[in-house]
Amino acid sequence: xxxxxxxxxxxxxxxxxxxxxxxxxxxxxxxxxxxxxxxxxxxxxxxxxxxxxxxxxxxxxxxxxxxxxxxxxxxxxxxxxxxxxxxxxxxxxxxxxxxxxxxxxxxxxxxxxxxxxxxxxxxxxxxxxxxxxxxxxxxxxxxxxxxxxxxxxxxxxxxxxxxxxxxxxxxxxxxxxxxxxxxxxxxxxxxxxxxxxxxxxxxxxxxxxxxxxxxxxxxxxxxxxxxxxxxxxxxxxxxxxxxxxxxxxxxxxxxxxxxxxxxxxxxxxxxxxxxxxxxxxxxxxxxxxxxxxxxxxxxxxxxxxxxxx
Length: 309
Hints:
Helix 2 packs parallel to helix 4 (75-87), helix 4 crosses helix 12 (271-284) and helix 11 crosses helix 12 (271-284). The longest helix is centred in the first third of the chain and has 27 residues, at 40-66. The chain has one domain. It is built from 13 helices and no strands. By secondary structure, it is mainly alpha-helical.
């Protein structure tokens, strides 16, 4: 029954998913913000958080549907909603949500390279968004490899295709450097290139984050083994997108491992590749009973994880 509902990608489905997320969002925000009393500033903060979440959901759905990363169903969006519910309490930070939104804008350009239209502009934009990400979180530089892999998989390796994202990347850095130079705070710019000691992954063991991290990886690996034989057997645009999704997942894991200020929110960067990969794995499963069991299991895990985190 649930699998049949998720196989539809009608607007009513997405409204129900958003309503489901809103329930947990309100619980998290009311618990976090109104323990010390009511204020209109807190209400404005909550409205701002909700707006950013809705924008993130919009771009996620746009990336998956526009670039045909799944079939015509809502598996991926539903899984992304569940992951967002798990981390909603850790994502109630404007800096984190803005970083995630910019990351999605970066990925939007990367996956859109499957189309041959406006290639140079897309490459420049991908480098530009990554440059902004680097300013906000220097470890984001690991995703530059995703640009290189995308060029290799989906375009011809030419000088212009390699140089364009580099020019896009350094453009916001030049603007940022000029701003800091004007105010005589060059040390802030230099600090971008000095990395602090890496905090061990064991910090995730302090709450349920390490279990969520491991579950996402296990489901993703399981789905890769299920889908890859079929996806890699045909030389089409989805084959290249599938390879790109796997590289994206690996880089997101590396990002979570390398980031210095770990608080668990960085695991959300696995959300886009993981949810799409898992959705593709579920597509291969033919028996509805198994699908229903898996989806109900994910819902239970999301609810339990929400109150456990």
